[in-house]
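Same chain as my last thread, 107 residues:
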Amino acid sequence: MKNLGQMLKQAQAMQQRMQEMQAELEAHEVQGSAGGGMVIVTLNGKSELRGVKIDPTLLKPEEAEVVEDLIKAAHADAKGRVERETAEKMQQLTAGLPIPPGMKLPF
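reply #2:
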């Protein structure tokens, strides 16, 4: 039973760290860009869109399709960055805990 008590304490501490990390991720912002910086998308750590900046030279009717593609590319770039940073933080958070391979947190 002593081992079970220790595991419960570890689980509670991890839950607290998870809540702190989620708040930190929500406040953290990441930018992705496309077209050599002509389109910049800002996401928070939960992949929620926070802003889009478009170089004014792209704002021509005949460039609409290019702008749409660049927005998608910039979003994908920012989302990839968010996912990598989140994975790194999760790895730090769960370091040393016996979590089976493939199991994702939060549960």
